Each structure stands twice: as structure tokens, then as C-alpha cells.
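tool_call predict_complex ligand=zinc ion
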Amino acid sequence: MVSQPLRCSDVRAPMDHCQPVRLAKVYEVVRQTGRWLIPARCLLCSSAACPPGVDLCQLCMADLPAAPAWTADVVPLSGVFCAWGYEYPIDRLVRALKFHGDRSVAGALGALLAMHVADRCVPLPEVLVPVPLHPLRLRERGYNQADEIARHLAGRLSLRRLPRALERIRATAPQSQLPAAQRRSNLAGAFNVPARMVATVAGVDVALIDDVLTTGSTAQSAAQALLEAGARRVELWALARSGGDASS
Ligand SMILES: [Zn+2]
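tool_result ok
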């Protein structure tokens, strides 16, 4: 008997599984409201000298690590853009976003990533699609960090965001636990464009949004699903590039 891949619609969440998502939304509303009352402070040094809408001061921004060169094969992606290297303090900020519920990081780094992208002087895509989490991981975390970043990018760049254009239909082993040869096959067929979204992605240029690029296999698999659904081209925008373990 051949086992069928797990689809989002197959996951029946008990009522209380919605709780982390609701609490995360409440937290975000409270945090955004607080911004009007309390001046933003730098996420790294607590300086109050932050540019409007960016929770990092100019000095800390200037010290962010440059992204290392990326020479690996990215097909079927049409391009890869990473703003920084996955080292201190970017690694600390990304871990705060992913594992400690600090969604303010997505706002700060999303705003800076938007500036970097706009500075490239190349045509912007038409839509932003965050790399989805598997429903079980999304339920556990309460939010998708890639979608948090995409939300801020969409606002800054006036681009349409499609958080449901892709679904992760198969839970996969962490890439960091696999030998290089198995990493691509681990992600093969892990993503799908739901039938209701096919007409929306058909014929458009997409920027796939993720937090950290490690091997590129996740983005390549996600891009393949979008291209098979008819997207014209798919490039990846990520906060940082890692040579090590930044998975999950
Ligand atoms: Zn600072």
C-alpha cells in the first residue's frame, strides 16, 4: 500500500490548536499599538536613535554581516538574493524571530531587506510568496516567520502578498540532518499550489520569501511547485545565507 502525502486539509485541528495563532495576533496588535506610545529602541543595543519604522540604529545596521557569495546551481530559481550572512547578530535576531516569538525582528529586518531589494535597480516581481511551514509546525509556532517577513516587504514595496499560494504537503526531515546527496530528494514534492490559487500565480513573476538560505533545496522545491502551476519566473529573497544549521 502506497502512503499518500499529508495535505493541509487532512489535518484536523482541535479547537484549542487555534489558540497560539490568536494569541500571536493579539500580541502583534498590542505591540503595534505600543509603538505609538513608546519610541522604538534598537533590537541590538537599545539605542533610541532608530530611523522611522526600523528597530535598528544606524551603527548596528552598518555592522550587519555581508552575505557570502552564492555560486551554487539555483535552477529552477531565476535568481537568489540574500541580504546578510547568517552570523552574529543576524543569527541571533533570526533565532529570536523563529524560536522566541519576537516578531518585531521581522519588521526591522523586513524593512532593511526591502531597502536592499529596492536598491538593486532590477524590476520587482508582481507577488511575494512566503515559503510555508508544514501545518503541524505552523500550529506549534503560531505564525510563519517567512510570512511575517513577507508582510513587511509587501507593505514597504507595495507588492501583493500571497500567503496561501503554496502549501507544504509533506513533513520533511531537517536538511541539516541529511547528507548533501539526500537534501534535494528530501524536499522533492514537499510543496503544492492549491487548485484555488493556480489561476492567481499563473503567468506572474514571484519572489519567494524565506528567512535563511542554507542548501537552497527548500527554495528550489517550492519554486518548482510554483512554476508547475504556471508562474513565469521565481526568484528567492532571503534575509541571510547560512553555510551551517539554520533549519526549521
Ligand atoms: Zn543599535
